Amino acid sequence: MCDFDPDSQIRILRLCPGDAASPLPATFEALTIKPFNSSESFAFEAISYAWERQPPIIDLLVDQKPVRISKIVHQILKNLRYTLRARRLWIDGVCVDQANKIEKQSQVALMTHVYRNAVSVIIWLNVAGLEDAAEGFQTAIAWLDSGFDRDSLLSLNKGVRSNLFEPSFHRKTLISWFRERHPGLKCKSPFHELTRVEWFTVSG
């Protein structure tokens, strides 16, 4: 891995272009993040994802040397790689030496700077097994646009508060409230299904 100061710099993965069937060659570039000077730095994107307790079992070739990564990280990089041009990404499973405890502590202290100064943050959700996840997000946006609040939920309960904190109660009343106001929106995977994805519980 490239030489850098873990207290002030991060590694950025410069992912070489390619198609879905080609290998994933990449290089590391050191970026001073604290302090961050946009005029003297380069743009990068940060990735937030759930580790899903996967061990590193796949070798990624970085600067012509193997770096061991997990299946989920490999999948993310394969899907985010551009076909015709390189892409600069920060993802902790690659850019932080997971075997170096001292480095990991220093890099954790820089996380706020990483996400604050990235040109965009990509949230990667593993939605395998969810039917039509895109419609779930559409539902979530419609819920937000509808101005749903706690009082609306209570009014649907018709004064019976015994089940107020039961997940099944919230699930049923949220769906009925939403469908009452959006009868034309047929959603096979409401937002509450998406919140079961591990990222919403523990993100990395």
UniProtKB/TrEMBL annotation:
Q: Name the source's superkingdom.
A: Eukaryota
Report what the protein is called.
Heterokaryon incompatibility domain-containing protein
Location of the Heterokaryon incompatibility domain: 44-131
Give the classification, highest ranks.
Answer: Eukaryota, Fungi, Dikarya, Ascomycota, Pezizomycotina
